Amino acid sequence: MNNACSQHAHPHRLVQQPLTELTDRLRASSRKVTGQRQAILDVLRRHASPLTNRQIHDALGKADCDLATIYRNMHTLTEMGLVKRFDFGDGSARFELVTDESNHHHHHLVCNRCAIIVEVEDCFPPEYETELARRHGFASVSHRLEFFGLCPRCQKEPAAEPPPPGNAAPASTGATPVLPQQQKRGRKPAKVAP
Amino acid sequence: MNNACSQHAHPHRLVQQPLTELTDRLRASSRKVTGQRQAILDVLRRHASPLTNRQIHDALGKADCDLATIYRNMHTLTEMGLVKRFDFGDGSARFELVTDESNHHHHHLVCNRCAIIVEVEDCFPPEYETELARRHGFASVSHRLEFFGLCPRCQKEPAAEPPPPGNAAPASTGATPVLPQQQKRGRKPAKVAP
DNA sequence: CAAGTCCTGCAATCGGTTTGCAGTCCCGTC
DNA sequence: GACGGGACTGCAAACCGATTGCAGGACTTG
């Protein structure tokens, strides 16, 4: 019993809906319908905004599915077109379930302070892209577009953390805004002599 | 002599132009005009498209400036508005010098195969963003927009590597395209018993 | 030119991601 | 329903971009 889900009696408990489409598409490509895959999709189904691998891992219960398995499956599912991958530039990929409703072209508006994510419809007309491709001789042109700003709640917030001047995107020149990252990296402090 | 640049007799050789603006702006914020900073800006000045920290390091000659110093300085220079940070989603940040000519709002068109970068002017009208901000109650809204496709040269190429189906961005749904990454990660193979 | 800061190189470390390996599970077949 | 092979998983090692403590060196100011 190495398959983590099987450490629990009923890994399939996590699945709430019939997954006929998943089943069909997996089998069609000679892949297998595992409890982990169903559970991952189920987590995504319950969340409106895109999740990181770690968030999926946490939501699943860490014992139910190894993080590496999630990484591997997000690749597979992205390849199969069951999920979409987004990147908000904070260092971790995010994934969103592809459903009939979400399959349309859309982007996101992300709060620079609290990282809340709002789905938005706004985009330029597709002719722009066609023309761009033609002008530069590129083929199969796609784009990535994300919006960043300060959400209503964070605007009222009395600036818990001092507003980093870099985040405000002083002049919109197309440069990449920076999401909040309160990480502790680097070397640990040396131990003091006793 | 720990300052790497000074291991060479004339680190300042790398500097080709007077850097009065850099000097003024650095001193104005009680920072220092170091050979490394001048050299970094000089590298950026000689390159049209955005460079990664590693590319800057390579261009400088690895002995001339430590990679960590480059990371630190790119932060500083970005904060000061002397360079702009871009992110094409391939896992490493890229930096472009802010000059009078490049200070205008612009984006990039990146080849999914060879990663060549073309600067493009195309963007939606600013009213879009204003309206978006108003509708969702967000403030200081900015955006990140990059285009991906297959450059003219790579279209003719007889597909040296089998064209990864994922990269073609099959239907443009706003999802993040994936840049080529031929990395070797993960665990090393176990040594076979002799 | 001396003192105070700011910076740098070095190396350790972090978070995100990938991968080899061996054991497990899924599923078509008998 | 048992069987077998290929797909998949957990585990842990390893990789990568990036960050940071520390001690010594470089810039500035006076």
Q: Please state roughly what percent of the residues of chain A sit in beta strands, choosing from under 5%, 5-15%, 15-25%, 25-35%, 35-45% or over 45%.
A: 15-25%
Low-pLDDT windows of residues of chain A:
1-18, 161-171
Number of helices of chain A: 6
Largest sheet of chain A: 3 strands, antiparallel
CATH superfamily of the largest domain in chain A: Winged helix-like DNA-binding domain superfamily/Winged helix DNA-binding domain
Structural class of chain A: alpha+beta
Strand element count of chain A: 6
Mean pLDDT across all amino acids of chain A? 81
Name the chain pair with the biggest interface and residue counts per chain.
Answer: A-B, 59 and 59 residues
**Succession of helices and strands of chain A:** HHEHHEEEEHEH
Considering DSSP H and I runs of 4 or more, what fraction of the residues of chain A is helical? 25-40%
CATH level-two architecture of the largest domain in chain A: Orthogonal Bundle
Number of domains of chain A: 2
Instruction: Give me the side-by-side strand order of the main sheet of chain A.
Output: 1-3-2
What is the CA–CA distance across the termini of chain A?
48 Å
* Cα gyration radius of chain A (Å): 21 Å
Instruction: Briefly note the CATH topology name of the largest domain in chain A.
Output: Arc Repressor Mutant, subunit A
Report what the structure shows.
The structure is a homodimer of 194-residue chains. The first copy, chain A, is an alpha+beta fold and 194 residues long. The first copy, chain A, folds into 2 domains: 1-102, Orthogonal Bundle (Arc Repressor Mutant, subunit A), CATH 1.10.10; 104-158, 2-Layer Sandwich (Dna Ligase, domain 1), CATH 3.30.1490. Helices cover 30% and strands 17% of the residues of chain A. The first copy, chain A, has helices at residues 20-28, 35-45, 53-60, 67-80, 126-136, 152-156, and strands spanning 51-52, 83-87, 93-97, 107-111, 117-120, 139-150. In chain A, a hairpin with a 5-residue loop joins strand 4 and strand 5. In chain A, helix 2 (35-45) packs across helix 3 (53-60) and helix 3 crosses helix 4. The longest helix of chain A has 14 residues, at 67-80. The interface between A and B is large, with 59 and 59 residues. Chain A binds a DNA duplex (30 and 30 nucleotides) through helix 2 and helix 4.
